[in-house]
């Protein structure tokens, strides 16, 4: 009797640091790929369809779409006022009407 089937295996593609939207702080992450494998006697032999990929925060273990890696630094830059526009300790200007 031959036992065969498939299973999903996970492979770490890389890692680094990013601004985790759940922790709201700089954290390290793992970039992970999931793929189906054909198995015989529970031994993965042939890679099959790629199931997808995700980014996992190593602190809170939340899984996120890899798009969060493209936004690194954009959030910080978009909230920073232009250089010299505000003196330290000065009140913020009122929001503009839409």
**Low-pLDDT residue spans:** 74-93
How far apart the termini lie comes to 71 Å
Over the alpha carbons, how many angstroms does the gyration radius reach? 22 Å
Arrangement of strands in the largest sheet: 1-2-3-4
Helix content: 10-25%
Instruction: Tell me, rounded to a whole number, the average pLDDT.
Output: 78
Q: Please give the largest β-sheet.
A: 4 strands, antiparallel
Q: List the total number of helices.
A: 2
Please state roughly what percent of the residues sit in beta strands, choosing from under 5%, 5-15%, 15-25%, 25-35%, 35-45% or over 45%: over 45%
List SSEs in N-to-C order.
Answer: EEEEHH
The total count of strands amounts to 4
**Which word captures the global form?**
elongated
Give the helix/strand class: mainly beta
Characterise this structure:
The chain has 98 residues and is mainly β. It has a domain at 4-70. Helices cover 10% and strands 51% of the residues. The chain is built from two helices and four strands; from the N terminus they run E-E-E-E-H-H. The chain has a four-stranded antiparallel beta sheet with strand order 1-2-3-4. It is elongated and about 55 Å long.
Main attributes?
single chain, four-stranded antiparallel sheet, elongated, mainly beta, 2 helices, 51% strand, 98 residues
Brief characterization of the structure:
This protein is mostly beta strands and 98 residues long. It has a domain at 4-70. The protein is 10% helix and 51% strand.
């Amino acid at each position: 009797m031959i036992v065969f089937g498939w299973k999903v295996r996970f492979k770490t593609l890389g890692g680094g640091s990013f601004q985790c939207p759940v922790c709201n702080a700089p954290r390290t992450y793992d970039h992970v790929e999931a793929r189906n494998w054909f198995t015989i006697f529970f031994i993965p032999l042939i890679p099959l369809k790629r199931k997808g990929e995700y980014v996992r925060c190593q602190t809170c273990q939340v899984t996120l779409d890899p798009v969060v890696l493209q936004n690194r630094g954009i959030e910080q830059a978009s909230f920073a006022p232009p250089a010299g526009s505000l003196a330290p300790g000065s009140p913020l200007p009122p929001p503009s009407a839409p």
